[in-house]
Amino acid sequence: MNAFGRGFDSRRLHHHPTMRFFRIVRPAAAALAAVLLFAAAPPARAQEPALRTVVIDPGHGGLESGAKGRFGNLEKDITLAVSLKLKALIEKGMDFEVVLTRDRDVDVSIENRSAIANNHKASLFISVHANGAVQKKAAGSETFFLSLNATDEETRRLAYLENNSSDLQSRIDPSTDDDLMMILWDMAQNAYIKESSRLAELVQGELDAMLGTRNRGIKQAPFKVLTGVACPAVLVETAFISNPDEEQKLASDDFQNKVAEAVYRGLARYLRKGE
Ligand SMILES: [Zn+2]
Predict the structure, then answer these.
(1) Domains of the chain listed by start with CATH number
(2) How much distance in Å is there from the Cα of 75 to the middle of ligand 1?
(3) Which residue, of 22, 23, 120, 148, has the greatest Cβ tally within 10 A?
């Protein structure tokens, strides 16, 4: 079927007086249209896509539980709970569509998480996690943006655990092809490092203010889930599920609300350019 619908005879249109007129003036009209288009073209900066979609990534899910607390709380449940609360806040208070990489307890590969962001042409990507450490005393929140070089040894280990926990049976030796893949993926996020770092800083600032937990600051680490994302992207380690005190906080509605509120406020400040 053509654009005019079934049974339309375009030959009749060409013989219509109005169409004959347009055939004559068409070159002039085209030139005028070109001028108008050029004049109406906004400056380059305004051509950037407007902020429309935030993708929230609840870490882990399905068979892959993430870190586990002493009281049996699983990282995957906490990340989902916090992400759903954050989604509700953004939808209520901001002019954004919110897409979750998962909205229930299912497996989603790291590659699919960034693909979901890119397919939705996300303006921002926030991956939500809860930290795990061998040291039971480790506590506090920290926000990461991507770098191939980890801030310190502890951060490098954390990135390794987060990157490979989806495939516990066959953890990849970090010295193999994996490194090359990371470098290739890194290129997508590379263009957004500055903005990602600003977003991380503002989110972390609000976490510090809201949570009353120890500020561990913003850090850089080679998190795979961030590498393929083509927009400003951060990974928030809300608190330590491996610390019994923080585990109980993380499992509470009150603390989850605070985390969501803090990330929301950080986002709001990020959107007010110039901060
Ligand atoms: Zn995690």
Answers:
(1) 10-41 (no CATH), 45-271 (3.40.630.40)
(2) 7
(3) 120
Mean per-residue pLDDT over the chain, rounded? 79
What pTM was computed for the model? 0.75
Q: What is the DSSP letter of 165?
A: G
DSSP-assigned letters across all residues of 112-156: HHHHHHHHTT-SEEEEEEEE--SSTT---EEEEEE-SS-SSHHHH
Burial of 68 per CB tally in 10 Å (0-12, 13-18, 19+): middle
* CA 49 / ligand 1 centre spacing (Å): 30
The share of the chain scoring above pLDDT 70, in percent, equals 72
pLDDT tens profile 236-262: 999 999 999 999 999 999 999 999 999
Q: Which residues place a Cβ less than 5 A from the ion ligand 1?
A: 59, 66, 129, 162
Q: Determine the distance separating the centroid of ligand 1 and the alpha carbon of 128, expressed in angstroms.
A: 7
Alpha helix (H) residue ranges in the chain: 10-15, 17-40, 75-93, 110-119, 153-164, 177-190, 193-211, 224-227, 244-251, 253-271
Sorting pLDDT into bands at 50, 70 and 90, what band is 11?
very low
Alpha carbon of 57 to ligand 1 centroid (Å): 11
